Amino acid sequence: MDAILFRVPLRLNIDGTPVEIDSLQNAVTFLRDWPGARRGPVYACAMKSCEAALAGAVRAEDARKAFESFARITGILGARTFAPDPAAAARVPSSLVAAHH
Asked: How far apart are CA 24 and CA 50, in angstroms?
């Protein structure tokens, strides 16, 4: 099975160690390894969304959002880094770019 990649990977901070979740399969593996004692309703929602996306019942990006919410609520979501979209940068009129330099 080909990996279902997220458009924007999620960065987690696990005990000071950065972890990148870049695909639906990585998210499911991470959730399966999550301690049973720390599994609650937010965990269940994220897992259900990821499994539904693997089955094709929901979009991978919707499952990513559920996983991101899980990570934020559990306090493991890392700082977001900004990587400009080259296609978006190409659409910026040159007159605007010149005005800012």
From this structure: 7
Note if the pTM is more than 0.70: yes
Distance (Å, whole) CA 37 – CA 98: 56
pLDDT per residue of the chain (101 residues) written in tens, 0 to 9: 578 999 999 999 999 999 999 999 999 999 999 999 999 999 999 999 999 999 999 999 999 999 999 999 999 999 865 555 555 545 544 444 444 44
**Structural domain spans, the chain:** 5-99
